[in-house]
Amino acid sequence: MANENAVAVQTTEQNQVTQALLLDYLKTMNKGLTEQQTKQFLAVAGTFGLNPWKREVYAVTYKNKDGSTDMSIVTGYETYIKRAELNPNYDGFDIQFKGSFKQGKITKQGKNGPWQVDALVPEGVVSCVCTVYRKDRQHPTVEEVFFDEYDQGNSMWQSKPRTMLKKVAIVSAFRKAFPFDFGGMPYTSDELPENMTGADKLNAQGLQEVSTAQEHPQPSTNQAPQANDAENERKQAQKDANWQKLCADMRDRAPEVFDNFMKVHNVKSIANIKDSASRKKFLDDVKATIDNAATAARAEEEAEV
User: Fold this and answer.
1) Across the beta sheet with 187-188, what order do the strands follow?
2) What is the model's pLDDT at position 134?
3) Which residue of 21, 51, 210, 232 lies most exposed, with the fewest beta carbons within 10 A?
């Protein structure tokens, strides 16, 4: 009898990722997943050949505010670097910090009121710049991320802010430098709300410092009063219109590249991309692909001259 959770799984000589291996991991480490969550994990891990026993991918469950249980797919950020090493055009990367941190205190809010904890706090604006080099590109890919945009205020960001910010910069830069290799790969946990990444479970396993999480819609909150429904619908309609215009403008820049990106990543329609995080990632990846194609075209023209 065929396995009802059967999906296509990529088997590589490096990882030997098989469906049996993935199911064995889920049965051992994540017994409470629903059938749909199991299929989702098998699809993501199988597509990218991620081996959970090598700490390349995890399934982490978390509670929504309405009491329901959801899942994040979490992958080690070093996977990006390891996979880039397999690309013959990869030529290394550099990290540069702007600004500094000092020992101080931050205020937290709890049920019993505010309290202060020791932490490394930024002195002004602090950012990290990751530069990725490719042998087939004339110009490197440069990505700058800012501390105040990603700080989650948890113990890791309080004690090791440079390490956490560096991870965000590396993953973001590698995604843009290798869009065809990493298109669809998970976002880092440091780019998402902490409640969606199972940070407490990962910390218990000593994995939080090297983890990334599958992009996922924001957990649902209590429904707004009915009087606000019309206003919410109006705002959503405006967001959808802006999204369609951005995609149209992007396609006008390079129709063939845009259409090929949609085909390669099996995106049937931009209307299927609903949440804001997914839309942002899609546009970032498409832009990086178009920019890389333009750079390659210029290089060919210069070579001919």
Assistant:
1) 57-63, 69-75, 212-213, 187-188
2) 96
3) 232
